[in-house]
């Protein structure tokens, strides 16, 4: 499909020719910097002079700065394939990317309560929502309109997180952050169901398992009910028990869903096993959160990292590695450095999630070691993919 004029495309800096380029590279680089600042802050160094609550900053920036940048890049790119209408590129893409980047750079210096930081940070996601809505409405592809209210919801959660910071209400902030993480996990569950079985079938030359409607409704429905419940239900023993049961059902349903996707065929295909293992961390994280609600010896913070470092980190790294190759006209082949990055991120997830449970006295070491492994993983991705994302497609097609 020749969506754009080649001469017009050639005048656009490759980094801004499609959303995946600037947001995948920018998000990966930012995650390395943010994790480095967090690691130094944990070590007692004053590297966040304007930030009043470094824990709030760490949670906020890894969710609304890193993860949602990757989501924005993916959706802005995928909309072109889904609708057949040229994706956002050039100066409009540069503007929204700049609105994403400026709060990331200003917040460590000006703080989380700075009006300029807050204003800029609350602008970029609604702009992405508008950019996504335009082609969907043009072709009346209502199925993919799902992303527009989702970006609006994330904007409202972002605003609520700033309100929590302004009021000094850490319990509200934690509730908002966990809700956002669960919503991102729900998004991965929706998109994972579309692409992971498809990728697996193509790479292994096997039949794609047909989704079972009852299982899809149960696994996704209970997960999204868990998102709403975490945000809205009162924190009493009775409601906690109800929410825990909901998360347990979602965990078991998603385990069954994953078991149907032929994971046993993926150990020798890194671009697949990273996605399958990453998805596995969704039900594991839901089980951990249920255990935290039932006060079974695990904190909410620790349980949440099964989803953040595990599910979000691994699925994001696997997807951006694959999508960047496909959309730059390259074969879906990765070298040893990227495989090492996958292994490092798996280690980061296991260390951050398991070590504090098995050896509580080594919790501080788990923080530092997992953060270092994360930085190395996304640092390797940035190094390998820099020339891929900043240069034109190798097949001279637009994008």
Automatic annotation (TrEMBL):
Pfam families: NnrS
Parts of the chain that traverse the membrane: 20-40, 55-78, 90-107, 113-133, 145-164, 176-193, 214-233, 239-259, 271-294, 306-325, 337-359, 371-389
Keywords annotated in UniProt: Membrane, Transmembrane, Transmembrane helix
Tagged with keyword Transmembrane: yes
InterPro entries: NnrS
Record's keyword annotation contains Membrane: yes
Name recorded for this polypeptide: NnrS family protein
Organism: Oceanisphaera sediminis
